[in-house]
Amino acid sequence: MSHNCCEHHQDGAEHEHDHEHESGPLVELVTLRDWLRYAVTRFNRAGLFFGHGCDNAYDEAVWLLLHTLSLPLDRLEPFLDACITSEERGEIFNVIERRAEERIPAAYLTGEAWLGEYRFNVDERVIVPRSFFAEHLEDRFSPWIEDPAAVDSALDMCTGSGCLAILMAHAFPNARVVGVDLSEDALEVAHSNVAEYSLEDRVELVKSDVFDELDGRRFDLIISNPPYVTTDSMETLPPEYLHEPRMALAAGEDGLDVVRRLLAESRKHLNPDGVLAVEVGHNRHIVEAAFPDLPFVWLSGNGGDDMVFVLRAEDLPA
After folding, report:
1. Distances (CA, A) of 72 to 46, 57, 79, 269, 314
2. Which of 33, 79, 173, 249 has the fewest Cβ atoms within 10 Å of its own Cβ atom?
């Protein structure tokens, strides 16, 4: 049956040559297996950067093809020898070319990003979710949070798409979660994600420049994945990153513009036993040099070590 299907499409290929807009791949590649091989080769030859959900050409090609064909993202094998219709070939070719030529991150092409089992709507109004916090929230931030059920209030500073605020709401079932961002565009995306998880009654989204609009509010846990890219690093970012909002990446000469405010102002927004955790990427050495007197504890994880620091309220400047 499958063999006959493929023969049918190959026979029909002669007619497809009549259409000037159709190029080689549209008539020569028949099955999903063919298109997957083509996509991996295309991505590798284009020298793409993978850092927005996948870390290699194969995984990203699988994701883009399955998504474009509206197939389950975890079921590749049953479809490998399925024939692709002429209409679908055009869609697949287009998404492969946009990824290779325009260097658009796959998350923007699909309109979705994943942290573990959680799916989020994303577009170019928000940074692509890829936080080291995801695995720590999966463990309910143990051992720093002894009793997840006792957490009444939590804050996600620089929430972007709202992904971490939503993960916090799942990790701490009794907590009211606040997600803060300065970008109205980002907050629009965050609202769509909060609604998708039916968390409107537990996750509040606030437009604020760091703590400016949170006067008097205190939390048991504050986490933040703020902008932390240095000026020098901004100038050498792969093209894929240039599709993301600059304000979600750039953080001044040493990458600490927002981190400084978090360290200076968090204590008055934490409950007495509260905890602050901040992701700073590969900037541990910069952070420790700028704040030599703070007793940072650096977390280890599957995604990498020393990317997130933790401080208790009592260790922060008053």
Report:
1. 27, 19, 10, 43, 48
2. 173
